[in-house]
Amino acid sequence: MFRLIGIGLNPRQLTLEALHAIQASDKVYVENYTSKFAEGDLKKLETIIQKPIHLLQRKDVEDYSESFLSEAKTHSISLLIFGNPLTATTHISLLEYCKQEKIHYEVIPGISIFNYRGICGLDEYRFGRTTTFVFPREGDEPLSPFDVIVKNKAMGLHTHCLFDLHPDAQRFMSVDEAIGFIRRAAVAREVDIHDWVGVGLGGMGHSKQLVRAGKLDAIEKHAWNVFPQSLIICGHLQEYEHEALQKLGGMK
User: What is the C-alpha to C-alpha distance for residues 47 and 81, in angstroms, rounded to an integer?
Assistant: First the structure.
């Protein structure tokens, strides 16, 4: 038996269904490369589930998944995923392997960043395609995430921009870094962004989570010190959305 389980954005967000499934497992793994808890850590989670957690790196899941999945042929194995297991990052290949090998599997959803973006007052039905900003590699900085924003804005839609992170190196992209990328991409693509409105989300699920809305200059000036973070670039704002951003996101 293999279970793919979402564990939310902090240990307190573990659902009863997830807790019972984990406690019924013979062995519990967690992947440590797609996100992190906004508050709390794996030690706290181990206390809650009363089981040891075995850490998996990216290569363990993407290149050597057969190693731990083969255990599910004779034992009950759980893989814990921060947030929701099939949102923003894909673990579909694990389920495909289970199907191929006739391993019974179950997916248990968890709370993710997408459950929080409505907290600023934007209409969930008015979001376009999500994109991800990545850290430059060897001087190469892909502009495709910026192109997604421009295409969404052309349709009047909001864009939720997720950020790259390297938890093993304690490196997490921040809202101000992301806005810096937008500025560079705007110059390269010759796009005027002076009137762009955004919403910064910091450490959602943390007791001191941050939600700040406004022009990019204004958002950039805030102290972004809780992680993980993400950024919404607004498309055409309806009157009720504009009012909500002022009341809930502090937009001037």
Answer: 17
